Amino acid sequence: MIQQSLREKHTEMIKTEAQRLGFLSCGVSKADFLEEEAPRLEQWLKQGMHGQMHYMENHFDKRLDPRLLVPGAQSVISLLLNYYPDEQQNEESYKISKYAYGEDYHFVIRDKLKELLAFIRDHIGEVDGRGFVDSAPVLDKAWAAKSGLGWIGKHSNLLSQKVGSFYFIAELIVDLPLVYDTPVTDHCGSCTACIDACPTQAIIAPYQVDGSKCISYFTIELKDELPSAMSGQFDDWMFGCDVCQDVCPWNRFSSPHAEPRFNPHPELLSMTKRDWEEITEEVFRKVFKKSAVKRTKFSGLNRNITFLE
């Protein structure tokens, strides 16, 4: 009984601190093998739906078992951080995904995860753990769903009835026993808005996305020339794509984030198609100083813009 009350106390402390740090929500699940996800991931890879994202083939076991990432792991703490912007790009513009408007989320979230882990160690004791932000072999959406933060929608993104899907997912995997949350039910119903709206038909069936057909894949992950067969299908997206999220009815509940580091460079929102077509490397560096867009480099963004012209 004492052990259980201690778990409850620690769990409540962690969730309260996560909220103070600005996270939308925090859920906890038992660090265990992801049995349901294993065959799905294997099949997805076998069918080549990861395209040239060869890193998805690496560390298969680690993706499915957090105890291989943090020895002795007992809990996966999943966290959501809102990035929905207050203002959006000029309508007469080539588009970038809203998650990339401001500072690269990896830096912002890592700082918050370090603070949360430091808090746990200061207030609970010697806890071994690691923070993860989408750059390690962790199935973020699966853990967030197990932790009750939402359900996986037909577009394969995590969805919540309260806040939709415009948020980042991160984890702290720790060797601390906590109180575990339970998954929520699926509320997609008979809706097929995301499937119908996808410009490249990348959502090949409900809950199944062919990553190698996604605009985000083409504009960010693919390093080769863009395939001519895709010409005219990108709907003016030059970095990433938000179509499946923009049309989702649950995103009518999205509200603007409160993270100053996610605010865009003022020039970004006002730039027109002509501005983008004439962009110099100097302007690129200024507008995307600490942005995730730097991942595609000036040459990559230019390639994408030229493809859209």
Features:
309 residues; alpha+beta; NADH Oxidase; 2 domains; four-stranded antiparallel beta sheet; globular
Provide a descriptive summary of the structure in words.
This protein is of the alpha+beta class and about 300 residues long. It has 2 domains: about 1-175, NADH Oxidase, CATH 3.40.109; about 195-250 and about 265-309, no CATH class. It contains 12 helices and 10 strands. The chain has helices at about 1-20, 35-45, 60-65, 105-125, 140-145, 195, 215-220, 245, 265-270, 275, 280-285, 295-309; strands at about 25-30, 75-80, 95, 130, 150, 160, 165-175, 205, 210, 235-240. The strands form 4 sheets. It has a 4-stranded antiparallel β-sheet with strand order 1-2-7-4, with helices on both faces. It has a two-stranded parallel ribbon with strand order 3-10. Strands 5-6 form a two-stranded antiparallel sheet. A hairpin with a 5-residue loop joins strand 5 and strand 6 (about 160). The longest helix is centred in the N-terminal third of the chain and has 19 residues, at about 1-20. The chain is globular and about 65 Å long. The model has no long low-confidence stretch (mean pLDDT about 95).
